[in-house]
Amino acid sequence: MPERSITPLILAALLLGTWLALRSIESPSVAPVTASSMPVLAPGMVPLVTGDEPIAAIFTKAGCSTCHTVPGISGADGRVGPPLVLATTGPARLNDPAYRGHAKTVHEYVIESVLEPGLFVVPGYPAGTMPIWYGAKLSALALEKIASYLERQGEVAPQ
Ligand code: HEC
């Protein structure tokens, strides 16, 4: 008697197992969040920034807003890179023992960070993410305006 009544159970278990396995293969899975799903800014998406634009347009046109939060610039609420509050963070970067750049002032540090982002990677943020082609997109005037603006921005008090 035992053999007879157990066989259907085994069959049922096998069928259930197969069904579960198939189901897990077919069910649409949510793509995992990986580095490759971060916003990527291609050079073709960024027009030349002359520096004659209003300051907000400089950050928006250049695409900085996609990755950075910039105080006083509406829509600049990106979180890929650090908030650009260089009046607060700049001096610490220059004094960081790991800093290998050539800037002596926060102003110079901002320009250096935009033109040669690989020189110093802010701890806790992904390397190789900040575009390396801004030298070909930003005029000297635009760079000056960016640096003058950012060196004056401090940590915003939490609301
Ligand atoms: C695709 C994302 C991305 C874009 C676009 C981008 N950045 Fe960054 N940026 C980063 C990341 C990530 C870091 C931190 C890692 C590093 O230091 O390279 C960073 C670092 C910086 C730093 C150093 C900040 C600090 O706290 O020391 C400055 C300054 C900066 N970016 C300015 C800009 C400006 C100005 C623009 C636009 C012209 C811009 N970034 C566009 C991702 C981006």
Residues in helices, as a percent range: 40-55%
Our count of helices gives 6
Q: Structural class of the secondary structure composition?
A: mainly alpha
How far from one another are the termini? 74 Å
Task: Count all strands and give the number.
Answer: 0
Which H/E pattern describes the elements?
Answer: HHHHHH
Total domain units: 1
Fill in the keyword field for this structure.
43% helix, mainly alpha, elongated, 6 helices, binds heme C, 159 residues
Describe the overall structure.
This protein is mainly alpha-helical. The protein has one domain (35-150). 43% of the residues lie in helices and 0% in strands. The chain contains six helices and no strands. Helix 5 (106-115) crosses helix 6. It is elongated and about 85 Å long. The termini are far apart. The protein binds heme C.
Give me a quick take on this structure.
The protein is an all-alpha fold and 159 residues long. It has one domain. The protein has six helices and no strands.
Spell out the blueprint of helices and strands.
Elements: H1 2-26, H2 55-62, H3 64-67, H4 86-95, H5 106-115, H6 140-150
The protein binds heme C (HEC).
